[in-house]
Amino acid sequence: MYTPLNWTMTQRHVAFASFTSWMLDAFDFFILVFVLSDLAEWFHASVSDVSIAIMLTLAVRPIGALLFGRMAEKYGRRPILMLNILFFTVFELLSAWSPTFMAFLIFRVMYGVAMGGIWGVASSLAMETIPDRSRGLMSGIFQAGYPCGYLFASVIFGLFYSMVGWRGMFLIGALPIVLLPYIWFKVPESPVWLAARARKENTALLPVLRKQWKLCLYLVLVMAFFNFFSHGTQDLYPTFLKMQHGFDPHLISIIAIFYNIAAMLGGIFYGTLSERIGRKKAIMIAAFLALPVLPLWAFSSGSFTIGLGAFLMQFMVQGAWGSRADLAERAGSGECARRAARVCLPTR
């Protein structure tokens, strides 16, 4: 039976699981950005020292993208997605019990490796399962999972931080584990991967890189700029609001909730728009419209104007991200090209 979107129930389960895994991964990551100053106080370090944890998490994600991407090629998307979720949940829990700052950094590095695998594996499972005509919409929906995770972290921070502290926030970060039974019982393997296995296609890495090195270079550079665009406007913004403007946790949480709602709307809006005007045009429009928002986003003084600037900025940032079906489509229709895209795309 088909739905109004012409998606079967199985396709909807896959879309939901992929979206939710990416959302909960982002939730775990953004817990850290809300408690940077508290970690600095606890470990007797500066905020800039503690922010190294963010840098290390992001720096090792390409390693995770490569490792989990290769395993997903060999063993399938579904089991590796489950392994990936388990892996980053464990290191999120260990972060809560860090006895020293060095131990905390090590746990965040390991978390970063796990985080690196989620986007490629989950998006491959989704894009290989849904109808081709729904790629733009699915790209926007899937990308909305990232700000949705940030939104979830904002709500949890506003509601529970004063009661549980920074360690309790990381303990709450174990929530992604509840997704595993759902994937086990409701989500099938990618039909594209099953077909490739039936044909006994060679998935060796080096031949793919040799044949598609230009594509790999293109994807790496584009994703580097995408990451600069998003993380440069997101990761330290709660700390900026607290330290530069003196906002309390409740107000920071409210502002973060609103700009993450904007991010979800932007991803879905531009992802859908890209179906009509093209991926590249949608990305360029969103990116260029972020420029006039910069003064409002960075240099406002009142909470309302800052919140408005953050709302508009994240609508554009995630709007550009929401049109990234273009990257997979540029890989072409061949399995070799698609594997190159999965191997070479650094994650968020």
Automatic annotation (TrEMBL):
Keywords: Cell inner membrane, Cell membrane, Membrane, Transmembrane, Transmembrane helix. Residues 14-348 form the Major facilitator superfamily (MFS) profile domain. It comes from the Bacteria. It is a multi-pass membrane protein. GO terms for cellular component: plasma membrane. One of its GO terms (molecular function) is carboxylic acid transmembrane transporter activity. It holds the Pfam family MFS_1. The chain crosses the membrane at residues 14-36, 42-68, 80-97, 103-125, 137-160, 166-185, 215-231, 251-270, 282-298. It is found in: Cell inner membrane. This is Metabolite transport protein. It comes from Salmonella enterica subsp. arizonae.
